[in-house]
Amino acid sequence: GINAFIPGSQVTTHYVKDLSQYVGQTLECKIINVDDRKKRLVLSSRKIQEQEQQVKIDEAWENINVDETIKGTVQRLTDFGAFVDLGGVDGLIHISDISWKRIKHPSDVLNVGDELEVIVLRANKERNRISLGLKQLTKKPFDEFVENNKEGDVVKGEVVNLLDFGAFVRLQEGVEGLVHVSQISYDHVEKPSDELEVGQELDVKILEINPENKRIALSIKGTQPEPQKPEKKAEPKKAPKKKVSYSEPVYEESDFNNSLGDLLDAKLSESDLLDSED
Q1: pTM greater than 0.85
Q2: Is the dihedral of CA 265, 267, 273, 275 positive or negative?
Q3: Sheet holding 30-35: strands in order across?
Q4: Do residues 215 and 151 both lie within one domain?
């Protein structure tokens, strides 16, 4: 027989710390070097495995088409996403493409070994990179919200952010709406943080749904009856002042002539009396 040697790096396609597990196994190998001096062959099982993998990769790429769906199995999870085996090649679902809702880690939604259907977002065969999407196969949260709710409905939500002008509330479908500071209470509110806190669960009324801008206006005070304003006491009505009218006396023309005639007669009589005394 001829002695042959397989370097540790040529046993398989990945690093193996303990090679004792291969003792007694039969491996298909390729001759990569001949040592005439030592009359020994240098073999590689890795080369054979890589050739087999390349055949699988080429076959897998035939089924990879952008914007088409494909089935795969979750192989491993990282902080930035999930790697999915597509039958010979791995694709990556970035954490932002796993769910429409915000998640802290892919493990919040996925587990190793999960079989799922994904959509191919981008593919580069030369670089052997495939970007996959999972959330794209489900309804967008805003569209789902519009289907389930209408203006005037009262729904449950959770305060997720507080700003000077209002509070953002996350609703059941995962969408967020704004409660303007003027819609928090019937009483004057200086800052939303004076009345609310992040994480608080509450009921809100849908004031407006704007599909074009994907905005939702909410109200907290709208879920409560409006307080009645105290009635103002009616002031007693003052009696209207009487108008005093002044009218000049009206003299008839005959009265005027008679009075003037009487005065002249009196003067003439007085003159005649004085002449007789002289």
Answers
A1: no
A2: negative
A3: 3-5, 40-44, 30-35
A4: yes
- Which residues constitute the domain of residue 14? 3-52
* Rg from Cα positions in the chain: 51
Question: Which amino acid would we find at residue 133?
Answer: G
pLDDT by residue for the chain (278 residues), tens only, comes to: 678 889 989 998 888 888 888 888 889 999 998 888 777 889 999 999 989 888 888 888 998 999 999 999 999 999 999 999 998 899 999 999 999 988 999 999 999 999 999 999 999 998 989 999 999 999 899 999 999 999 999 999 999 999 999 999 999 888 999 999 999 999 999 999 999 999 999 999 999 999 999 999 999 999 998 887 766 666 666 666 665 555 555 545 555 455 555 555 655 555 555 555 55
End residue of a domain, out of 52, 71, 93: 52
Q: Is residue 267 part of a domain?
A: no
Domain count, the chain: 3
149 and 219 together in one domain = yes
